Structure formats: C-alpha cells, structure tokens
Amino acid sequence: MGRMRDGSHLLECGKDCGLTEKEEFMTQRNQQVESHAGLSDKRIVVLGGSSGLGLAVAQQAVAQGATAIIASSNADRVKQAVATLDGKAEGHTLDLSNEREIQNFFQRIGDFDHLVFTAGDTLQLNELVATDLTEARRAFELRYWAALAAVKYASPHIRKDGSIVLTTGVAGRRPHKGWTVAASVCGTIEALTRALAVELAPIRVNAVCPGVVRTNLWQSMNADARENLYESVGKSLLVGRVGEACEIARAYLFLMQEGYGTGQTVVLDGGAVLV
82: Cβ–Cβ under 8 A, 6 or more apart, which residues? Predict the structure, then answer.
C-alpha cells in the first residue's frame, strides 16, 4: 500500500509538473507577444504623415517610443510636422504619383516595422451623367495606385512581425447618389487590403475606414462652409458629431500592435453606415 501511495504521489507530481511547465511556456509566449506588440524602438513609416490622420498617427506612435518616418509632397508641412514630434522623427518630401521616387525612398530608408498609408485627396462627388472620366481615373492615382506602389516597394523592407495599414472610407460601404467614383475608390482599397493580406503573409495588412473627420482634407472649403458641413453631418450621426483625427489614429496604432488580425477593415464612422 505504501508503494502504491508513493507511485500515486509520483504520478500526481508528474501531472502537476507538466501543468506548471505548460503554464510557464504560455507565460513566456504571452510575454513574447507583448514585447513584439509594443511600439517602443519601432520604425514606422507614415505616407501622408505631414497633417491630418497621418500626423496624428505619427504623434501617438512617437509618444509610445517609436521613431516616425513621415513623407508627403509638401516640404513646408513636412518640416512643420517633424518639429512637433520631439526629435523622434525624420521627414521626407515625396511625390506619391511618381513610382521611381517611391522605389528610391524605400531603398534609402532601409528596414522598418510598420507602414501606414494615409495620403489622400478630396473624393470626387458628381452624378454619373456629369462625371468627367479623365478626372475619375485621376481619383484612383493617389488613393489606389500610390498605395499599391508603396506596398510593392515597402514590403521587402518590413521586419518580422511588421504590418501595413491602409486607408479607405465609408463611401464604399454606404454610397449616396453622386458617389459612384468615390465609392469605387473606397471599395477598391478594401479589396486590395484582403488581397495583399493573402499575398504578403505573414506581413499583416489591414485598413482603417473613417467617416467624416476634422482634417485638412476639407481645406478647399472656406471656414464657414467647412464648419457647417461638420455640424450638419454630425447631427445626422448616431454619436452626434464628426470624428477627430486623434481618435481615428488610435485604430491605426491598434492594428499595428494587435498582431493577429489581417485582411480586415476597421470602420470608425460615428454610425454613418447605419443611418
């Protein structure tokens, strides 16, 4: 009976030891995931990072210990943006309509961890019968072709556990009359996101889909008209207001850090697709 008790004790001890080892392994694995997920000491490239959503992303990433590499076509805005980033950023002037410039840019900056593409212009809104097809083709230049070129030349330089976050818009999810071109552009980016996630795995590729946000995207309007737009759109939304760049930026940081999602589009629209 004594030997049986001793044997049972050893068997139970073996079970307990096995569980402890498993728990230790899971703890170590979780710690590894957490260490990779943080942005401290990461290099983050933000195309369109001199203002609006891109600058908000760069500012929040730098606040978490990252180095931001921002690029935009406006040299003055790039310089001003870098000055707000506490010496933890470098700025580049880049014509995103020029494929060769994009290629040279990524060869020059070397390896990095995350690519964020927020560059965009005002979406073309017009009824189909009045749509200029030359202008319609041009609408894809920055939002689609430049994004595709950026991913093409950036992906070989993205480090292990890195990611890409693109930008689309709610026009593709809830188009209105006169939004044919705008909806097409936004829908194309969502499809591109899914296709790239498959092709570039294990690099994660996701997108953020904002609604109306207070950014310089609306700078072509005069101040009164712009505020009237924000007020009228805000009243129509479930949250009662338009978005702010700083809160949309958090979605980009989440997608860079979460480590498991890919091919997904995160919608932040104040409930626009529901009303």
Answer: 70, 89, 90, 91
pTM attached to this predicted model = 0.86
Q: Which residue type does 13 have?
A: C
CA atoms within 13 Å, Cβ hemisphere of 267: 15
According to DSSP, residue 80 is labeled: H
CB-based contacts of 195, cutoff 8 Å, min separation 6: none
In whole angstroms, give the CA distance from residue 219 to residue 154: 30
Give the pLDDT confidence of 142-179 residue by residue, as tens digits: 999 999 999 999 999 999 999 999 999 999 999 989 99
Q: Alpha-carbon distance 153 to 108, whole Å?
A: 11
Q: Which of 168, 154, 57 is nearest to 111 (CA)?
A: 154
Q: What SS3 class is residue 7?
A: helix
Radius of gyration of the chain (CA): 23
Distance CA 205, CA 193 (A): 6
Q: Return contacts of 187-195, CB within 8 angstroms, 24+ apart.
A: 188/140, 188/144, 189/143, 189/144, 189/147, 190/265, 192/144, 192/147, 192/148, 192/166, 193/166, 193/168, 193/263, 193/264, 193/265, 194/263
Encoded amino acid at 155, one letter: S
